[in-house]
Amino acid sequence: MTRVTVSIEDDLMEAFDAFLEGRGYTNRSEGFRDLIREKLQNTKLSEDADGVGIAVLNYVYDHEERMLASRLMSTQHEHHNLTVSTVHFHIDHDTCLESVTLRGALSEIRTFADKVLAQPGVRHGQLYTVPGELHVETHHHGNDHHGHAHKHEHLKITN
Length: 159
What we know:
Layout: H1 10-22, H2 28-47, E1 52-62, H3 68-78, E2 83-90, E3 95-105, H4 106-117, E4 122-140, E5 149-157
Antiparallel strand pairs: 1-3, 1-4, 2-3, 4-5
């Protein structure tokens, strides 16, 4: 691990310390590392049009909006290759929250998210993405004596 020295104005350091305390950090180093990771991740996401990764799309919608639930379901089916899981939560009589976990090409994930969030009746929404790298690996499964190998694609999350 590399040790660095950084000069920071007193008021900025006070604000950073308050930020760290409010979020339960026990030391400044981990806070700085998290900020650097976040900045690098956001830069990679904005610059890498052909990248892959994982994402979570959260959105709140009006369950009573005419045909909205059906349109949302159709959109998910149109992008079934991206969807890992969906969690549905009833907030109140008319309002639902869905959380969709996605994996694949980030451009396709963004397209899916934009289509969902643009639906009339979707009130709030946010897409959180994490870039990764796609690796094809060969694995041997089972206890057979024939050593059958199977290739799998795995998404490796980058730091």
